[in-house]
Specification:
With 583 residues, this protein is an alpha/beta fold. The protein has 17 helices and 21 strands. It has an 8-stranded mixed beta sheet with strand order 6-5-7-1-8-12-2-13, with helices on both faces. Strands 4-15-16-17-21 form a 5-stranded mixed beta sheet. Strand 9 and strand 10 form a beta hairpin. The protein is globular, with a radius of gyration of 23 Å.
């Protein structure tokens, strides 16, 4: 398995990307089955990897977190059945609190340091950071600039080292049988740090600020900055393509096409300015994020150069590997082997989303994004025995009201902790959305169609019940835990105005020169952080105090609005700026 992070389907030549330099992805498509209808499930990074291990959706019960004690793990099941498993990765989240139970499921593993804000190199003095790089200077951004000088050449880049190690495993073991190696790079995830020979593939005029790491927010940057960030991503994508080519060369050199399964995949995509958004997680899960590239070669059936339009998902990857090695699939797995996709539809519809966000479904033609029924976005609860977040443990305050929940079927008789959940997004402000991908593949014109919504809401409830969604999720979404979905449960028409308001783009920074009444004025120059937070909370419902205080001081108001997930309508920006300035 060659796994990338944040790999954009739309930018790859086999999927119509006609301006990026990615010849090895084109070469890959000639040797594999290209899946045209592959979708993500639970997001983002570690929830997706939990699906990779367990073959079941998890975002309705749990936010970002480790594998649970009751989870079935595909690599561990392979290991227990005589298949040697090896992980090589530079993905830093595997070695944080919120991902610390994944790598131990393999027989052996290797980790290469330096991606994103990996706390790798120690440096007391602040590094030299370009002046315009970040207004929100968190520790992660600082650490990234401590790390970069230690990856100054391509041979020292963690992506290169990851593929070096994966190829070493193949070189050492290619003549052996019953092994699985997962070569997983964090790239092309942001920051888009690559070397000059890849940047030279995309010459363009640009004299703006350093910009290879967009925040997850609405776009307020200039058109030139947006284009530049896209080229920086493309350069890193081309570096990924080069690394992929090295694996294809090894497949050729060792004759592995004869007897070795190859899967090339990703967890999700990344918005690079499309629909007025950067990143992921803070906006609805548009197709740019969840419609995934997926390639597979199965030597038992062949299929080189073929395409498959069966609806498949991340939950199908664990069953695929277990079936290939003849290992029995646990009853809790919801996915199916990709080997069955050519002959039958694996599912009527697929579920996807993030904990506390929209709960989404697609049948391959339509996408239905179900928002909560009110702005409270409650009840939302965590069910876990591993109370950790991405980079930290649950606080005592978060654990103060915990209870023991009754077991779910997939927890194997084990009661989990149940406690109030948290989320940094509130999908209520975007409303419920319905898209027809045949007539509107770019998802620019949301539909109001009661008949289609009723059908998809019915499918959504069917999938929620099959995955044992907690009772609170039905209440949050205004859907029936029992009985039929009726016209009274529909939301798209009722929330149409909210959806239209959320889609209004924010003004760009160039529209506002620096000044006391400007949207570009840092809030700290107007008044104290605490007072500013109280005012902004009235205009940014659903955002936590801690999140506001994290970036208020050095951040201009327009960027606060952009980072608040689009919850502040564009027409209110001037009102809030003047309200702040009067103080």
């Amino acid at each position: 398995m060659v796994m990338f992070d944040s790999l954009n389907r739309r930018m790859l030549p086999p999927y119509g990307g006609d301006w990026t330099h990615a010849p090895n992805f084109a070469r890959l498509a000639e040797r594999t089955v290209t899946f045209d209808n592959a979708y993500a499930g639970s997001m983002p990074c570690m929830p997706a990897r939990r699906e990779l291990h367990t073959g079941r959706y998890n975002f309705l019960h749990r936010s970002w977190g480790p594998l649970e004690p009751f989870d079935d793990s595909m690599p561990e099941l392979l290991k227990q059945n005589g298949v040697y498993t090896h992980l090589v990765s530079d993905h830093p989240h595997y070695w944080e609190d919120g991902g610390a139970t994944y790598h131990g499921r393999y027989n052996s593993w290797e980790f290469f340091r330096g991606q994103e804000g990996d706390p790798w190199k120690g440096q007391v003095a602040d590094p030299e950071i370009p002046e315009d790089l970040k207004r929100m200077r968190s520790a992660v951004y600082r650490q990234d600039w401590v790390n970069r000088p230690h990856m100054a050449t391509e041979d020292r880049h963690p992506q290169t080292l990851t593929f070096d190690a994966g190829l070493e495993f193949i070189r050492t073991n290619h003549a052996e049988d019953r092994w699985f190696v997962q070569i997983e790079t964090f790239d092309p995830h942001e920051p888009f740090f690559s070397h000059q020979r890849y940047k030279d593939l995309y010459p363009h005029a640009y004299d703006g600020p350093h910009f290879d790491w967009p925040d997850y927010k609405r776009v307020v940057e200039t058109d030139e900055q947006v284009a530049h960030a896209g080229f920086e991503y493309a350069a890193l994508l081309s570096m990924c393509d080069h690394s992929l080519g090295r694996v294809l060369d090894a497949m050729d050199a060792y004759g592995l096409w004869d007897d070795t399964l190859l899967i090339v995949n990703t967890d999700h995509g990344l918005l690079l300015g499309e629909k007025g958004w950067w990143g992921k997680s803070v906006q609805p899960w548009y197709n740019e994020l969840v419609h995934l590239p997926l390639f597979a070669w199965d030597p038992r059936s062949g299929g080189a150069g073929e395409r498959c339009d069966t609806l498949v998902q991340t939950i199908d990857l664990a069953p695929t590997l277990l079936e290939y090695f003849g290992v029995e699939r646990p009853v809790d797995m919801q996915g199916a082997p990709l080997s069955e996709a050519a002959d039958t539809d694996l599912r009527e519809a697929g579920l996807f989303g993030i904990h506390g966000g929209h709960v989404n479904i697609t049948d391959g033609r339509y996408v239905y994004m179900r928002a909560p029924v009110d702005a409270s976005n409650t009840p939302l609860e965590e069910y876990t025995l591993m109370p950790t977040h991405m980079r930290g443990r649950f606080t005592p305050a978060e654990l103060a009201d915990l209870e023991l929940a009754e077991p779910f079927g997939f927890t194997k008789g084990v009661r989990t902790l149940r406690m109030p959940g948290r989320t940094f997004v509130n999908p209520y402000h975007h409303g419920s959305l319905l898209f027809d991908l045949r007539d509107d593949p770019e998802q620019l014109r949301p539909l109001v169609d009661d008949e289609v919504e009723l059908r998809l809401a019915t499918l959504l409830v069917k999938l929620m019940r099959s995955t044992e969604a907690p009772a609170g999720q039905y209440e949050r979404l205004g859907l029936p835990a029992e009985g039929a979905v009726t016209d009274a449960h529909l939301l798209v028409r009722a929330q149409r105005g909210r959806a239209e308001s959320a889609a209004v783009p924010l003004p760009r920074t160039e529209d506002y020169p620096q000044g006391r009444l400007s949207l570009r004025t840092p809030v700290a120059t107007l008044l104290g952080d605490v007072v500013a937070a109280e005012i902004l909370k009235r205009h940014l419902p659903g955002i936590a105090d801690s999140e506001l205080l994290q970036f208020l001081g050095p951040t201009p108001l327009i960027d606060i609005a952009a980072m608040a997930g689009g919850m502040l309508p564009a027409e209110k920006l001037r009102q809030v700026a003047e309200e702040l300035a009067k103080l």
